[in-house]
Amino acid sequence: MDCSQGYPGSLEIEHSASIYWTLVNAEIGQLAQQVIARCRKLATFSEDSGSLRRTFLSPPMRDVHREFATWLQPLGTMLQIDAAGNLRALYAAVEPAAPRLLIGSHLDTVPNAGAFDGILGVVLAIALLEGLNGRRLPYAIEIVGFSDEEGVRFATPFLGSRALVGRFDDDLLDRQDSQGISVRKAIQHFGLSPEKIGDAVLGDDVCAYLEFHIEQGPVLESLALPLGVVDAVAGQSRLEFKFSGRANHAGTTPMNMRFDALAGAAEWITAVERAARISPGLVATVGTVQARPGAVNVIAEEARLSLDVRHPSDDIRMRAVEDLIGDAQAIARRRGLTVSWKEHMNQRAVQMAPEVITRIEEAIRKSGCKSHRMASGAGHDAMILAEKVPSGIVFLRTPGGISHDPAESVLVDDVAKAIECGVHLLEHFAVSSAFQKRTCRA
Ligand code: GLV
Ligand code: MN
Ligand code: MN
Hints:
Layout: H1 25-42, H2 59-72, E1 78-81, E2 87-91, E3 100-106, H3 119-131, E4 140-146, H4 159-164, H5 170-174, H6 183-189, E5 206-214, H7 219-222, E6 227-233, E7 235-244, H8 261-277, E8 283-285, E9 289-292, E10 302-311, H9 314-335, E11 338-347, E12 350-351, H10 354-366, E13 373-376, H11 381-385, E14 391-396, H12 412-431, H13 433-437
Parallel strand pairs: 3-4, 3-5, 5-14, 6-13
Antiparallel strand pairs: 1-2, 2-4, 6-12, 6-14, 7-10, 7-11, 8-10, 9-10
Bound molecules: glyoxylic acid and manganese (II) ion (2 copies).
């Protein structure tokens, strides 16, 4: 389990209040293998046959909850699904009036997903509890499996974490999926009560949030490092565009007499790509296109597209969005089309808590690895939780940098290092009175 680069590793705990003296490398290795096997099993619970898709409160989410219960209940946790569909398992502290550490990530996926994005962080948190062997700490640990981070079903992300910070408003409840089902109805269909969403909000006993997540990019692999620490998560804009033209016969309408909405949209897609290529750090993606009426021999009357724009600087991101709207208008005007757009998300970039970053770096080093600070281009539940509690993210190397794809994977030795890092973090928090005095920013 040595890191391929960095400091010589050791599991020795430096201070006297050692809680993990029984956890040896072989046990960590077994836990790591079990984490991977569990993630692979959970990846079989899908809305699609032959590939993984699990969106907000879809039927397979219930199977995932059931599976988690079989692992969490023997550990003596109190398990509940809150009104936003988040799985929450509380492992009590030695004493009742203790602070609470949250560890988690998301249980939903993109379409055609891999087995580790999000869910690895929740399964790994269980491994940390298992590593305690029943021992109770001076703080409680709450494992959270968020119901939605990806935003696939309702075209807006973070439904789960928004409930914890009190940002799940009525507009969100009225939002509809592609079948016309509202968030409110989806919650009811799952057997939950939308009117109880307020109960999901964090109490002021919560002192920090930790998230273990795959990097989903190539940086750690290129540095030959198993783990990294996130210092900031890039801001995101998500919009929907609609180009409108005129449907007509594909065989009889001369090329210079068309108002082809899809051709206009296609021109704009390449303009989006060009704009992002020339602006350092900017990423912009059109990930979905729907043409109407959608027939091989009919010129498209309407094209709907999604746009996702990210940059660590909010100013640069927002200026880029304005420019891309301007490009869409210019293209539509020149082609005799109209274009409209709706903003679904404008999430600012978020810094992780400096004190949590420092602790994670120490824990990574104690695990025998070199620590690397990096920004995350992907969104994470921690960026929402950070509004209320000091939050931090540990990244695990992602082989080939491949994610949001069935080929997504993780190395068992890296999972072992992440568990070891988690052990050191729990250990630190157990002896840190500064940590235990922290409370949630209400
Ligand atoms: C989450 O995966 C994101 O889109 O950043
Ligand atoms: Mn994802
Ligand atoms: Mn994720």
